[in-house]
C-alpha cells in the first residue's frame, strides 16, 4: 500500500533522549511498511543518529535540515507524510514552516516536560501525537503505534 | 551555517520564543511586512516561522526572525537596501494579486460596472 511513498522525519534539537530512540524506531516501522524514509536534522542530530546506526541498518537517508527546507521551498522535493519532532518553541516553529511549505500530511510529534502546553500552542494544520516523555520512550511509542497511515 | 551568520548583523533579541520575536519586530519597525514561511532572503536563508511571519524595516536595516532548533528564535538586523526593496516589491505584487483575484477593488469592478452615468441611473 505504501510502496514508493515518501516519508520525512524532522528532528528537533537532540537534547531530549526519547527523540533519537523514536526516530530510529519510526524509521524502521515505516520502512517495514514499504515507505521510503528520509530523516532531516541539524548537524549534531544527524551525527548522533549516524553514531547510533554506523552501518545505516535502520536509517539510510539523512539530510541537513536547512538544505531540506531550501529544496522543499524550491519544489525540488516533497513528501507524502512528515513527522516533525518537537519539544520546544523552536521545534514547533519548524513544524509550522513544514505545514506551510510542504503538501505532506503533517504529524506534530510533541514530547518533553512541557509537551501538553507546547501541543496547545500549535495552531497550524497538523495531527498531534503528544506524550510527556523525556527518558522513557514508551508513552510516545504507544501513541506512535496508534497512527494509521 | 546560513549565509546570514557570516554577514554583519545585530541581534536585538536572543533565544526567545517566535511570538516574542514577532512582537518585537511589530513594535520596533517603521514598516512591517508579512511574508510566507520559506521566504528567501540573501543568498540562502529561508525564513522559518509560524504565520504571520513578520519582517520589519527600520531605516536601512531589515529586521527578521532567525530560528535555530537548539537555541530558539533571534531577532536579527542587517543593513540591506536590496532586500528592503525586494520586500516592498513583494508586498506590491501581493496587493496587485489580491486585487486581481477578488480583493475589494476587483469586487467593485466586477461584472456589471456601468459605462456611463446615464446607464447608472437606468439601474
Map the helices and strands.
The complex is a heterodimer of chains A (149) and B (123).
Chain A: E1 6-10, H1 18-32, E2 36-41, H2 43-52, E3 61-64, H3 65-73, E4 81-86, H4 89-101, E5 105-110, H5 115-120, E6 127-130, H6 138-145
Parallel strand pairs in A: 1-2, 1-4, 2-3, 4-5, 5-6
Chain B: E1 10-16, H1 18-28, E2 31-35, E3 40-41, E4 45-46, E5 53-58, E6 61-68, E7 72-79, H2 81-100, H3 104-109, H4 117-122
Antiparallel strand pairs in B: 1-7, 2-5, 3-4, 5-6, 6-7
Short key terms for the protein model shown above:
heterodimer; A: 149 residues; alpha/beta; 6-stranded parallel β-sheet; 6 helices; 41% helix; B: 123 residues; alpha+beta; 5-stranded antiparallel β-sheet; two-stranded antiparallel ribbon; 4 helices; globular
Question: Could you characterize the architecture of this molecule?
Answer:
Chain A has 149 residues and is of the alpha/beta class. Chain A has helices spanning 18-32, 43-52, 65-73, 89-101, 115-120, 138-145; strands at 6-10, 36-41, 61-64, 81-86, 105-110, 127-130. The longest helix of chain A is centred in the first third of the chain and has 15 residues, at 18-32. Chain B is α+β, with helices and mostly antiparallel strands and 123 residues long. Chain B contains four helices and seven strands. Chain B has helices at residues 18-28, 81-100, 104-109, 117-122; strands at 10-16, 31-35, 40-41, 45-46, 53-58, 61-68, 72-79. In chain B, the strands form two sheets. Chain B has a five-stranded antiparallel beta sheet, sandwiched between helices. A two-stranded antiparallel ribbon of chain B has the order 3-4. The chains are: A alpha/beta (149), B alpha+beta (123). The interface between A and B is medium-sized, with 27 and 21 residues.
Amino acid at each position: 500500500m505504501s510502496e514508493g511513498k515518501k516519508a520525512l522525519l524532522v528532528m528537533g534539537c537532540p537534547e531530549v533522549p526519547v527523540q533519537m530512540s523514536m526516530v530510529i524506531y519510526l524509521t524502521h516501522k515505516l520502512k517495514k511498511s514499504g515507505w521510503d524514509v528520509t530523516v532531516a536534522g541539524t548537524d549534531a542530530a544527524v551525527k548522533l543518529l549516524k553514531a547510533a546506526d554506523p552501518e545505516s541498518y535502520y536509517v539510510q537517508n539523512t539530510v541537513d535540515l536547512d538544505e531540506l527546507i531550501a529544496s522543499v521551498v524550491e519544489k525540488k522535493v516533497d513528501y507524502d507524510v512528515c513527522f516533525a519532532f518537537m519539544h520546544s518553541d523552536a521545534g514547533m516553529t519548524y513544524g509550522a514552516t513544514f505545514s506551510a511549505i510542504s503538501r505532506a500530511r503533517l504529524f506534530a510529534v510533541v514530547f518533553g516536560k512541557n509537551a501538553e502546553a507546547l501541543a496547545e500552542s500549535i495552531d497550524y494544520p497538523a495531527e498531534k501525537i503528544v506524550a510527556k516523555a523525556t527518558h522513557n520512550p514508551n508513552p510516545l511509542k504507544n501513541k506512535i503505534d496508534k497512527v494509521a497511515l | 551555517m546560513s549565509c546570514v551568520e557570516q554577514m554583519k548583523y545585530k541581534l536585538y533579541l536572543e533565544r526567545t520564543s517566535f511570538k516574542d520575536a514577532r512582537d518585537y519586530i511589530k513594535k520596533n519597525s517603521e514598516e512591517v511586512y508579512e511574508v510566507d514561511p520559506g521566504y528567501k532572503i540573501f543568498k540562502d536563508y529561508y525564513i522559518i516561522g509560524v504565520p504571520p511571519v513578520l519582517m520589519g524595516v527600520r531605516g536601512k536595516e531589515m529586521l527578521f526572525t532567525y530560528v535555530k532548533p537548539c537555541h530558539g528564535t533571534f531577532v536579527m538586523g542587517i543593513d540591506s537596501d536590496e532586500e528592503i526593496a525586494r520586500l516592498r516589491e513583494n508586498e506590491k505584487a501581493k496587493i496587485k494579486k489580491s486585487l486581481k483575484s477578488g480583493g475589494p477593488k476587483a469586487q467593485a469592478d466586477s461584472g456589471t460596472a456601468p459605462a456611463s452615468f446615464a446607464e447608472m441611473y437606468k439601474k
